[in-house]
Specification:
The chain has 303 residues and is of the alpha/beta class. The chain folds into two domains: 2-176, Rossmann fold, CATH 3.40.50.1980; 183-302, Rossmann fold. The protein has helices spanning 2-16, 35-45, 68-76, 91-98, 134-151, 156-182, 199-205, 223-236, 250-261, 287-302; strands at 28-32, 49-53, 79-82, 104-106, 190-195, 208-213, 240-244, 267-272. The strands form three sheets. It has a four-stranded parallel beta sheet, with helices on both faces. It has a two-stranded parallel sheet with strand order 5-6.
């Protein structure tokens, strides 16, 4: 009931108000949904922005429900950035309504749809996990830079300079990821995770990816899904499977037990950051740290 009232309040607010131009004072206030977008804003904006992420470490954006506190933050923001491509579930409806009166953008809106992975379940929908291909994420960073520059044109040159420096770091990250995954013998390049968040990663870095759940965590995997994955692991003699920090490990544990029943011991190779980064203020709480940590965990378990 609380969430119904919240969505209703946002709808009324968005439909009843007209866009108002007001002079901004102080830092540009930016609200993001995920930590990945938040980190991009910090790297581009530096001390010119006051940024905050609604979704912290361990939070699943597919299941996230806005709170009353979120509504206040969104109303007070100069700029709202979200992933889009239905990553944020029902919150997408909120952002569409708020965009009538606020500066609201999906960081994926400029990406050529031909570069996106089509959903295998939902017609005319795409896999939203674009940050797992660093080159694709660079396009989101460029869009974020453009949006920040338009929102605070006085400091546009600073945003663009910061962005150029950050994009070079992302180039290095992309190259390092290619080299690391290439070090895994090709027959062992099979990444099995809790849900299908790593499809872009697999395409970009040439590693086969299989998720127990689909691209969304809204539905629970069934016995048929678990059995199918157990068969794959046993047939390919997979050494390790992976849990995710933002997804329950219950189903993956069932897969491990199923493999043991078949006489094949598979280990939990580690925990991967999928839909959320690590704790803010730590290396894993940055985009570069998140990707680097994942790659190290994968290589150490599969090599």
């Amino acid at each position: 009931m609380k969430n119904i009232l919240l969505y209703t309040a946002i709808t009324i607010f968005a439909l009843s108000c007209q866009p108002v131009q007001k002079e901004r004072q102080g830092k540009l206030k930016v609200i993001t949904t995920t930590g990945m977008i938040y980190d991009a804003v910090l790297n581009i904006g530096g001390n010119l922005v006051e940024a905050e992420a609604l979704m912290g470490p361990g939070v699943d954006p597919h299941l996230y429900k806005a709170t009353q506190g979120d509504l206040a933050k969104l109303q007070n923001a100069d700029l709202i950035l979200y992933n889009g491509l239905h990553l944020e579930g029902k919150m997408g409806e909120i952002f569409e309504k708020l965009s009538r009166i606020k500066n609201v953008h999906a960081i994926s809106e400029d990406i050529d749809r031909s570069k996106l992975r089509a959903s295998q379940v939902y017609e005319n929908a795409y896999d939203p996990h674009i940050w797992f291909d660093v080159k694709l994420w660079k396009e989101a960073v460029v869009f974020t830079t453009k949006t920040l520059s338009k929102s605070d044109s006085i400091n546009a040159k600073i945003y663009q300079a910061n962005s150029s420096a950050y994009l070079k770091k992302l180039d290095s990250l992309h190259g390092a990821t290619i080299s690391a995954i290439d070090s895994i013998p090709e027959p062992q390049r099979l990444l099995i995770t809790a849900h299908d968040a790593f499809g872009y990663f697999g395409d970009a870095y040439k590693i086969r990816v299989e998720g127990l759940q689909g691209i969304s965590t809204l539905s629970e995997p069934g016995l048929k899904d678990i059995t199918k994955l157990v068969d794959l692991i046993v047939d390919n003699k997979v050494k390790a499977v992976f849990i995710e920090t933002s997804v329950s490990k219950k189903a993956i544990n069932a897969v491990v037990e199923g493999c043991k029943d078949r006489g094949h011991d598979v280990i939990i190779g580690g925990s991967l950051y999928s839909d959320a980064m690590g704790s803010f203020g730590q290396f894993e709480g940055t985009y570069i740290g998140m990707v680097s940590s994942n790659v190290n965990t994968i290589v150490n378990a599969l090599k």
